[in-house]
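quick one, 158 residues, struct below
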Amino acid sequence: MNVRNPFECLAVLMFVCSLCGCGVSTTGPTAGPTFQQMSADMCQRLRAIQRTNDLGAWAAECIQRHSAAASSRPALLPLGEIPSWIFGIYDASERPRAFIHYGSNPANHRVTFNWASGRGIWTIVVAGASYAPALDYPTAHVTACEPGLFVLYIPPVP
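---
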């Protein structure tokens, strides 16, 4: 399955889910953690995984394995190929959607894991050490965990 733009699909899902009234605070104290705290926690979990796994090498191997189907559109990574280590990074009952993105420059190839809910869209980016996200989504917040490892958060539509 090819997706035209995973962020568009996730934004629609996020809007629908936001109708439930739950959310992550983007401005101040609430009953739950702020997105900055959640991003820092997710980075801490990614760093712990990175100590025992080379996530950049895993992403490169995954990208190479699926390169025959490469196009300018993100490719959906089959559920059976999502590594078990990803499930402990974000506290959600659902499994993430995983996409392989092929950039015009191989240094921009990456794998993303996405969760969409009424609390916003959370994305983990696993790429090569030289990758730097270039976002055209004005409300996205990016946290660099390590070279090639990023947490992205897009808050819910008000």
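Residues 6-21+32-154 form one domain.
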